[in-house]
Amino acid sequence: MNISIVGTGYVGLVSGACFAELGARVWCIDTNKDKIDNLNKGIIPIYEPGLDDLVHRNVKAGRLHFSTDLTESLQDVEMLFIAVGTPPEEDGSADLSYVINVAKKIGQNLQKYLLVVTKSTVPVGSSRLVKNAIETELKKRGINIEFDVASNPEFLKEGAAIDDFMKPDRVVVGVESEKAKELMTRLYAPMLLSNFRVIFMDIPSAEMTKYAANAMLATRISFMNEIANLCEKVGADATMVRKGIGTDSRIGSKFLYPGAGFGGSCFPKDVKALIRTGKDHDSPLTLLESVEAINERQKKVLFGKFRDFYKGDIKGRRAAIWGLSYKPGTDDMREAPSLTLISQLLEAGCTVKAYDPVAMDEARIRLGDTIEYASDIYNALEDADVLFHVTEWKEYRMPDWQKVRSLMKTPLLIDGRGVFDKTNLEGITYLKIG
User: Fold this and answer.
1) What is the average pLDDT across 413-421?
2) What number of other Cβ atoms are within 10 A of residue 414's Cβ?
3) pTM for the full predicted model
4) Comparing C-alpha atoms, which of 99, 103, 175 is closest to residue 137?
5) Measured between alpha carbons, how far is 127 from 108 in angstroms, rounded to an integer?
6) Rounded distance, CA 432 to CA 163, Å?
7) Quick one: pLDDT at residue 189?
8) Which helix (H) or strand (E) holds 276?
9) Are 41 and 188 members of one domain?
């Protein structure tokens, strides 16, 4: 099966490599010539465990190709996935300009039947806009070529994206014709053979499913953070509360960990976009508005604990930070809690030295020389008045606590992820959320 994927960002590149691994011939298209040139040289633009090997193996096998030429790829493919970015507008709505531009390009160059599939996260009704844009361009050309649109939202977790793609909980596909359903069934046949669930539905429902799923997970995180903050006030242990409610089969334990707030490319953006959709359709989502507000407050909790510990006397103090990416397993720092914390520390007149196993280059791009960059976890601690644990990378789990104490000016650990055992921290003041 021959397919094109427009957009070589996180979703497009992972999906393209995985489809190629399943046996399809894939053309990954991007307007960024430097990115395509690097991919053709074997340079992968994002960090994702296992992705380098997957890309190199399928390029070598002749199943995965990279190009800037969308027009040429249209001659050989049966379906095209749109996987370009949909960044948030100022009002929270998703910017569909990149998606529509691809649709226009398709309409300007289409020569034969094509199934156009939106893989980008798009609001309900976006596939209709894609269809209209293609039809408009075909009319300008004075021709009538059959095509279909479909929706196939992604549910990939950064840091585990390849496993998520190859062993999914479910694959959601929105279609409006039997021909489109037949093509999508053929594409996902390897998964059907392994008894994975491919759920077909109408296109608006598929588009909504993506937003609803991320909004639900974000809601669980904000709910647990609210409970954790209350636990501190009443003397309860949020860890015990989480275990107590997580064993209820109706609730489950996933996404019930208190922390410093959620970030990344999906949850913040998708919650905003769904709130905007509700407003546009006179159906306000007040619960999600609260979820968003709680999350913004939660990102400031770690700084508040630091300020309170020193009774406001924090100017000139030195802060060490373990973890910059919004979660382990990725170098993605979009909406990362670390950015909020660093901004607060710098504004208060503190100096910051940080370490992250994979996100240091991304941090330098975002933060420049406003902070210092450590060579390892211990180098970050020298003369520090506080250590913030922000991202739960595994290499932070079992440090030499005696060495930690000896390096720090004041052995104060503020744990934003609640992963350390207080009994191992003799001589260290340990503060956590909940």
Assistant:
1) 93
2) 24
3) 0.89
4) 103
5) 18
6) 32
7) 85
8) helix 267-280
9) yes
